[in-house]
Amino acid sequence: MDVDQDRLNEFLHRFVGDLGATMAAGSVVVGDRLGLYRALAEKPQRPQELAERTGTAPRYVEEWLRGQAAGGYVDFEPASGTYSLNAEQAFALTDPDGPLYAPGAFQLALGALRAEPEIAEAFRTGGGVGWHEHDQDVFAGCERFFRPGYVANLLTAWLPALDGVEAKLREGAKVADIGCGLGASTILMAGAYPRSAFTGFDYHAGSVTQARARAADRLGPGQVVFETASAETFTGGPYDLVTSFDCLHDMGDPLGAARNVRESLAPDGSWMIVEPAAGDTVTDNLNPVGRVYYSFSVFLCVPNALSQEGGYSLGAQAGERPIHRLATDAGFTRFRRVAETPFNIVYEARP
Q1: CB of 96 closer than 8 Å to CB of 104
Q2: What is the distance between the alpha carbons of residues 31 and 50, in angstroms, rounded to a whole number?
Q3: What's the CATH fold of domain 5-94?
Q4: Per-residue pLDDT tens for 14-23?
């Protein structure tokens, strides 16, 4: 085998970067859970000082800081021996309610990777691994990964882009949020539109229980209801708006879900479909965002779909064409892309 040394070195450079990032993921989650980033954002500090402020062991903190500096997640000042967060690092690492929160993505990734033995076995058998079978960090990390994008865009850009929906929500609409997980999207909408009635549905009973607890902490009594039901079986219509956030591609029977949405909508209702950003071809998705989503899809999206009846396994990079086809096959006559971000595309389907 003839090996091009330059191409080999290029690959080794990529490999070393990936290996460092893989191991650094654990350090990011540790830094988040122990409050190291938040404390460091207050002022530049030496390892001993940061350890004292966070109630942690100095030697561990020292090694953690060195690794974070090597990865560009914190800054190091050699003359003073202090470490710090610049404004951009603090923006991405310290505010779970902000529009960008990197630790949540790493929590999701580490949680998903704990299922590696089950996923490897599924490769051999062709079977599935259900969402409910994953580690708790998958559920919590998924919310913390996607919620910042919803905070930044849902109320200010996505809902206003729908035809006449925002006015209905202000006046008092009936809304179903299917595949709601821990309820981040449902709670955001319910808090913004108190005259409307919101019900979040998810097939995973554990997520529904957590969603109810979160709603009780953040909203007044009766503003939102959470029920255990799949997208194919939820009831309670007719709804003025049905939403699905980053979940349609995970379903084994997305056509069944789309048909149930169609039947549950009021005659002038709308279905807002939020899906991962993707092009329609593999080549379109050979980029950093596509790599992230394909990798998550191997461990989460495709295995969950294959664990269910229906015969679909769209995956996280399905693109617009399959979503449009599902809506059309389910009886929707109008479909359009209404908004997009680097991580999501938003579609509107109407009867």
Answers
A1: yes
A2: 11
A3: Arc Repressor Mutant, subunit A (1.10.10)
A4: 999 999 999 9
